[in-house]
Every structure is written in structure tokens, then in C-alpha cells.
Amino acid sequence: MTDLHAAAAAVGLRRDWTDAAGRAQQVEDSVLAALLACLDTTPPEVPFLSITCGEPIHVPGGLTGTAGLTLEDGTARTLALGSDAIDVVGYHQLSVGRRRYTIAVAPARCPQPPERGWGVAVQIPSLRDGRASAYGDYGTLADAADAFGRAGATALAISPTHALFPADPSRFSPYAPSSRLYHNVMLADPSLIGAPFPAEASPDLIDWPSAGAARLAHLRQVYVANKVRVEAEVDAYEAENGPDLTAHARFDALHARLGGAGWPDWPAEYQDPNGPAVEKFAADHADDVSFFIFLQWLAGQGLASAQGSARSHMAIGLIADLAVGTDRAGSHGWSRREDLLTGVSIGAPPDPLGPDGQNWGISALDPYALQRSGFSPFINTVRTAVRHAGGLRIDHAIGLDRLWIVPDGATAADGAYLDMPGETLKNIVAIEAHRANAIVIAEDLGTVPPGLRADLSRRGMFGMRVLPFERDSDGQFIPPEQWDTDAIAMTGTHDTPTFVGWWQGRDLDWRARISGKPAPDAMQGRAEERASLWQALGGDGAPPAEPPLDNVLEAVAAAPSPLMILPLEDLLGLDEQPNLPGTVDEHPNWRRRMPGETGVLLDQAHTEHRLGLLARTKTV
């Protein structure tokens, strides 16, 4: 082993890895060297430990004897290292002589669904209600939650609600947020405080730059008209959330004034969040900063209202979605840039779904910075996500154990896996889920590390079994009745074709249109896949020409899972998907709207029939 290889191994950079096909791969030395240069491995002043309730405490170095324990509520105890256990969930302080440790104690298992049931996954902006609107908001979500709850749903999985870039609504991907610590204020509903809703066009495709700018201007009018009336509540919210909220609001106010793709494009004096230029700006534009604090408060109120609407009929309610990272040019990268990996982007190595690999163009929390900060950025991120939810879906949960990181300027294939403190991260998720009484769904698709699914199952975190991917070693579909019992059964996700679209080859049509090349082999392959799926569904003879949607819904609902989730697009039998991976402007990602308001759509005869199938099958 060379010095370079030893140095990489010491910091958790993996030179050797196994691809999705089981083939051994090796990272080039030049890639390892570039990634090593991006990591600051300075150790923490106060080490952070984590265990599960009932486990004895062990500290680094194998120290024995007695230790002082101060629980989160201030209660003091004395315990014996290596033998005594802690039975209180939370974040506690441990003293061993002059050494200090923070210790996170997780429950043995995450909360579980109280009953078998089904849920629907929705993209919030796609929803419609009785108002003419350019896109759906938290008020639309509350109406949809009420409608789905009355129809018998147990849960409503929603798109991420992380803070985006209100000053630049052209950046509307919910998976490339400015910050995961705050809300998407562009979805705030002014009617929640009795303010009028704007008169807007309601097209089938959202024009984000135009619609977002118009909505933000209207929200500013709402703020001006109501700020005195809600001042006490907003002030209390600001005091509760502290200087980090103020910094986020300053970022949004600065971005509205300075423009650009984010803080790296600003004049140097504004790139320091604690510098005198920013302080002067905040003083000179105090009302702008207050406006964005008001919007965060209003957005939080909207999410709370939506979860209240959901829980009035549902056992779980909203299932929030936690994106894997953030845009480095955003609020988190500006105000807390020490939290994030620098000089790299995260993505995925080459696999059958992405033969060239994937570079998502976003950054993630730095594992060494996490340890130095006592994991507070991750704790607060998860806590924010579950604050107004009964469940949490973790996008790319593989990233809890390892991240594929790519040096800036390199191709997606020229990356390497970086180990993450997975045991601690999963324990933190369990603690926050326990406190919120929220179930946890860990998206375990793609190149899954050995042992991850067993570890998730042991913790009571559900994996995802998604119809297009459930196949045997020969590529044949596995009947849903044989799927895992410790995973959520799903017909698809926001990144897969709808079932109708898949059956008809709509995704293949899009790929051919974008590439400009017909794909007869792909169409022939899809015909063979349809035959395989039809057989897995128990069908006789040749597969039907029309998509057997009802057969699929009934079969997936019968999977031995405690919860089935289907995209709203599948419940309605639509043929277009919300997002086509690997595209930016070539496909209308995150722009499609539903064909009608939710309550009306659920009252249609074919939808009522499918709801009946779900109720009869999943609740048995």
C-alpha cells in the first residue's frame, strides 16, 4: 500500500469498491489525491458518541471505571463504563475524569405504522384546489390531505419542502435546496392569515420564473398589510429560532438585491456572513430581512395546518422528504459553509440507470465537520423535516453510510466513496423520529452497500420496494406477494415512469426525442418486460394492449408490507412522470400539474374504483 492509499483509507476514502453488477472497481490515484485535498480531518474538541438504549457505554481508548452522566434534562447520574447502560433517549453529556463527551442514545427501533394501510405520494406544486393558482401551496396541500384522509389513506408522502431561492424561482428543483434547515416560502399560503389569494393563471405546466416572481410580489403585499397584526407571533418565532434564522433571511434579502447564482457571485464584502458589509446591509434593509422571517413563519404555519388536516383522518399523516444535500451557492453554504464538503459534488457511480455516473451538482454535510460541531447541523436538519410530519423519507439513504463524491471539474465516474459516520447518523434519525412519533422510510435503491438493508430493518426503518426495480437475477419481475415485509411497497417514485407511461413506453419516447435517435431495441425490450410483469401479476397469455393498472394496484397493495404508497399519477392513471432523471430543460421536470382539484379527481368513477381496491386489499 502506498502512502497515498494509506492516507485515503485513514480518512474513509475507498480506493476499492463494487459496482451494481458485482464487479470490483478501483479509483485512480489522481482522484484520491484530489479528494484528499478537499478534506479537513481536524478532530473535535468534544467527541460525539452514540449508542442504543440498553447498550453499555464504551469510550475511546477502552477506559474503565466510573463516569458522570448529565442527562438532557439536567439529571445527574454515576455509572460504570463498559457495563452500565443508559435507558433515556436523547443527547447527554458524559464526563470521564477531565474528558468530556456528548453521547446520543437512540431507541432500539423507530416508530411503526399503527395499522396496515396505503398512502399517496404527491408533488405539492402539482396539486390543485378550488382556487385559480399558478401552482399548489401549503393550503392546497391541506385540502388534499383532507380529501385523501376522507378517502381512507393512512399517509400522504410529499415532495421536499426545503428552502429554495425565492429571488430566483427558476431554481425550482426540490432536491437542490438553498437550505434544509428552513422552509420553501414560495409555497406559503396567505389565506392562512386571512389575506387574499392572488388572481393567477392556472396552466397545465408551471412557469416557475414568472409564477414565482408574481407570488413573491403578492406575498410582499401581504406582509406589508399584516406585519403589525402578526408581529408578536413572528417575533416569538424569530426568538425561538435564533441567529441562524436571521442569517437565512439575510441571505434571501441579499440575493434579492444582488442577484447572481448565489453568494459566490456577490462582491467579496458580502460573501462573509459576519462581515461589516452584511451587518450594514441588514441594518439598512431591516424590513427586507423581516419580510423573509415573516415568510418562514407563515410557511411553518402552513405545514403545521396541513399536518393537522392530515392527522384529522390519517394514522400517520404527512411523510416529509429529506433531500440528500444542498446547493453550495445557497443559504447554508453562505452562512454555515464550514458544515459542507467543499471542492466536491455528490452523486452516484456508473450503474445500469446511469451508465456514465451521476453528478447532482450539490454538496453534503462534511463528516469531519459534523463531528467538530457535535452533529448539530444534521440534528437540526432532521428535526426540521419531521416537525410537521408523521413520517420521514430519506432520499438516497445510502448516503448515511457512504457518499459518492466527485472533485469539481471531474466527470461523475471519476469519484470515490467517502465513508460517513453511519451508526451515529442513523441513531440521530431514530432519536428525532422517536420524539416526533414519525415512521422512517430509507430510500435504499441503486448500489446498496452490503448489510445496509439488514441494519435498516433492525432499527425499524423501512426500505423501499419499487415495482420497476423488483426483479430476480435474470431480470424477471418478482411477484409483489414475495416482496420484503420490512419495506414500503410502491408502484413508482417521482423519478420513474408512471405505470401507464411505462407500459406505453412514454419514457422511451422522451429519451428518443431528447437524443434524436429512435430506440427500437429499447421498445422491444419493453415488450419483453411487459410480458414478464404480466406473468408476475398472475396474468394468462399475452399481456393486454391497455395498461393493466388495476391489476398492478391490487397486486402491490397485497404485498406483505405495512404500508403501500403510490404516486398520485398512478392512482389517476396518468402517463407523464414528474421528473425525468438526467434532464434539465429537455423535459418539464417539476412543472406538471394535476388535471383537476384533488377532491373532484377522487370522486371520479375510475378513481373511486381504485380506492376501493386499495381499501379492500391493503386493510385486510
UniProtKB/TrEMBL annotation:
Transferase as a keyword? yes
Source organism of the structure: Sphingomonas mucosissima
Name by which UniProt lists this protein:
4-alpha-glucanotransferase
**GO annotation terms (biological process):** carbohydrate metabolic process
List, alphabetically, the SUPFAM superfamilies matched.
(Trans)glycosidases
Catalysis: reaction(s): Transfers a segment of a (1->4)-alpha-D-glucan to a new position in an acceptor, which may be glucose or a (1->4)-alpha-D-glucan
Family recorded in the similarity comment = Belongs to the disproportionating enzyme family.
Keyword entries, A-Z: Carbohydrate metabolism, Glycosyltransferase, Transferase
Query: Where does the source fall among the domains of life?
Result: Bacteria
What Pfam families does this protein's entry cite? Glyco_hydro_77
Please give one Gene Ontology molecular function term for this protein: 4-alpha-glucanotransferase activity
The EC number(s) attached to this protein equal 2.4.1.25
* Keyword Membrane attached: no
